[in-house]
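User: What would this chain look like folded?
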Amino acid sequence: MSLGLSAPEITREQPGPAGRPRYLLPVTTAVLSTLFFFLVHGHLIDDTYITLSYARNLAFHGTWGLLSDSVSNTATSPLNVLSLAALTFILRDAVSAAGVLYVGCQMLLVLALRRAGRSTGLPGWFPMLTIAALTVNPLLVSSIGLEVELGATALAWLLVFSIERRPFAFGLVAGAVALIRVDLLIFVAIIFLARKHFWLDARRSFQGAALVALPWFGFSWIVLGAAVPDTVIIKTLQGALRFWGEWQFGNGYRMYWGGMPLQTVLSFLPLGLAVLAGLWWVVLALRGNETSRRLLPFAVLAIAGAAYTLAYVQLKVPPYHWYYGPGIIAATVFGCAVVAGFAHRVQRIAGAVVIVALVGASVIAYAGAGLPRAFAPLTTNYTTSAQYAEIGREVGRLADGRTVASAGEIGVLAYNCDCTIIDVFSDRGRMPQAIADLEAHTGHLSRGLLRVNFAFFDYGLQPRKPELALIRKSGPPPPGYLGRWVISAPLYETTQLYLVPAE
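Assistant: Here's the prediction, encoded as structure tokens.
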């Protein structure tokens, strides 16, 4: 049933207040975001470097893969890789490309927030408050370089075009959302169905989405051997095999609390605040308050975020921190919209003070560990990206052309070692076994979908045989090791990483 979401009276962006140019907000956002990226780029997490390796290999070698000499399909976000590859080709550096894309997304995001705010009658400070709360959230800071920022931007514009009732533009953005993360289609479906008489212009929306998404999915299905990225299989299998032991998406916040309590509270607090904001919104709606009607689009976004989060809880996938990102983004935007939409000035001030205090606490907590930080605020990596980069260069020298098996984290090492380092993310010869393992843990319907997805996959691929291996080990060193490095991280005890001959 439709929730009656339709275009309000104000459907186009209006000129800003007198004396304040319209470009001031996006330009200010760009400048501050550039400075912020310079501050945080040293601790981009390991999975970010998987994406950057894909982008660099596509830009410089024309290869869709983690390694420059072989094709793989473990880039979760095709659009993120394609965008980064285009920028890398121009800038000749993938990290710089990540910075430019981040700044561009920040500008587009704040413009979407301003447009959505004006279309729903929110005050001019709504986008500034919201972008500040999103920017400094420790979990989102720890996800920079991944597709989280790009996804937030696309979802914001999806909301704008839903409010303005522009079905074809909505469809185009929906197609882009599918290419950012296919699971974000949960947001698309809920926002689409919440529109008043959504079926009247559904054809135009489907046309726009197909125009953007189908070419890539068709190419990926036939040429790459799978319509959706292999990471969908890998991460689902990790959940089925309890790869992280007792930890899964539903209780992962407790794991982060154990090693990084303050950053965990600051990351997830917007979810709790959104619940309170949601209760207040429901009270207003039951009273027939005009404010509740104006805030309906943001409530729909929050509902979509909750559905997305519950779906991940049900899947029981490992608690990779960026998986929580879309839910936190939706909660933050909704919470800020409710604060900005309060009818009474005192209530608005009180709500704004809470959010500003959260922003301030996040900034202080980030800087509290010293600047520049060695680790991202939330991380499950075994050591810093800087040390991984150093280890990668040494591994490349010691390997001298030999194939190296990873010790579970491959992104920064592969980016820096100039060698062949393999695991299931880089060696597609390991996928047939992963597919078979997942089929053994799923029902008939899931097995059928897997077979359709891999209809053009080459099951004859053989895994590469490693000549060397990286292993993490405490205690006495293994015999015949070629290299040794002491590593530590917030969630792990100090241990050693060894380069040894492969068994």
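Residues 94-119 form the longest helix (26 residues). If you want, I can go into more detail on any region.
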